[in-house]
Amyloid protein-binding protein 2 (Clytia hemisphaerica), 612 residues
Amino acid sequence: MDELMDLEWVPHEKKDLKPSKPNLLQLRVISLEYVARNVHYFFEQVQALPSSQLIDLFKKMCQLKLVDNLQRLMSNLSLLERLIKHPCNWITMHQALNLVLTKEKDFDYFLAEQKKAACEMLKKQFTKENICNLNELMQFVHESIILGSFLTEHGRYKSAYIVFECVEISDLNGNIEPAMLSMAFDIALRTSHVLTVDCKYNEANKAILNTSLLLSYMHNSGLHPNCALFYTTCSMYMFSLSQYDKAYNLAVQAVQEISCDLSPKIIVDTLRQACKVCIIKRIFSQAHIYINEALKLAKYWFGEDHPKYADCLADYGFYLISVDSVTASVKFYVMALQIRQSLFGDRNLVTSMTHEDLAYAIYVRDYSIGNFESARGHAEQALKTMVELLPEDHLMLSSVKRVQALILEEIALDSDNKVMEARLLGCAEKLHLDALKLAKQTFGEGNVQTAKHYGNLGRLYQSMKRFKEAEVNHVNAIEIKEKLLGKEHYEVALSIGHLASLYNYDMKRYDLAEPLYLRSIDIGRKLFGVWYSGLEYDYRGLAHLYEKTNQHQQSSTYHMALHDWMEERRNKVFKQPTKLDIEMDRDTNIKTVLSNIKKNASYGSGSSGSNT
């Protein structure tokens, strides 16, 4: 205490006690947050704000997660349409819609029904005798196209369809005015697209026929629209039906139609679809060109936080897993998932499809080490969301149930608990049977997806020691795939390898297994080269087969082949991109880029499948 008393008092330096004046930026931030929190007091003033200031307000409300205030503003359809009219606002508006949907899960239907009601009122004004304001009608239709496209990008396909359907121009007055033909074509095309991505194939077929009819009307009227999106949409439809030759030809036609005056999204989507069909046709060099250029253009036009860039990343993941570059594939699916989660959240179909794709890629990557928990988590998230958002007979459930079943089967086989094993295998069987039923309801027998479900059931029944049922399902899968894809396709090789395994390890039909293994190896080497991952199981199978049949020299040959394969996999510097080299200079001549893509498409259109 004495020491404290001895301390000398030193006065503080004199300070200016006047508060510092906030600068204009600080004032703006303060006022923006205040208005964001108190929108209900300033509703009329907010509606009068220019779009550039209004979008800043939405950004602040998203940042603060002011869901009620976002819902209040977005319920005003004219205000919402004023904002989404500008593509640069879509990222913020996707985030806003996602937040509102967390509270009001059917908010997108509310918006679509608002638009439908407004359309009904407008229809009463436009009859054959009274077409008094064509500009007003065209403006309404244009706004509807934008709203429907926005909802489509958000994965709200049913709502988007409601919007497109209500403004089908041929219904407005019993015919189509010449000035409206282009819009009518655009609406029909977007209707075809949303029905295709929503797996409504019968309705999509009718919409595509309607689009073709409108295209004929346009040609007869001397109009010559760019058909890139039309060919791309038709290609997507044929692709979904496993009509891969038709899908490929349409995709090539679409690429030849791309030009600088097209919408950037249409150009990118055209390249993405061309990539997918080239992958299925095993034309990997062309597929790589298409997806690489799509990524470059998407980043150049939209940036790295845009849903279109995420679409390209997911497609690149599909390309990579198709060329046996699985580890890299997982990385790209993760990147796509992160973007989609930031925009759409997890309760979203687009995000769920990415969870499913990622689950399968991780399942393939970790198959040899038997670690399936990460894959299981993503598959369960995808299935949970799809079950919540979709009717029980929706085709999308078929694919995600297939992936979940594959994962559960492997977890069951790795379990030491026989009760747990039986329970998980039973769950897997139910999922596979559900998936097969959905596929057959939609496609019938003649579809690759149906074949995959037969093959998966075959593998499951092999694990469950139901060998005759396994054989029947494997044979069904092979027959369907050969008919649709040809005898040299890798999907055929997979099914052949699975049947060979059944004959070899379980049914002891070594005479039947041997030629199947040899055929599977031949296809794998031709398509992917000597380091193809699937060769491991065929080499092991043949080594086992020759041991059991006392052909020891042959067994030694395949043991050596397996050893060499392992060394090849270990030492091969496989071109798996860890960082994308997709930068484009701001002074890049887009016309030159597109011209080069079309030249490459023409050069590669006659190519046969080959690995890159």
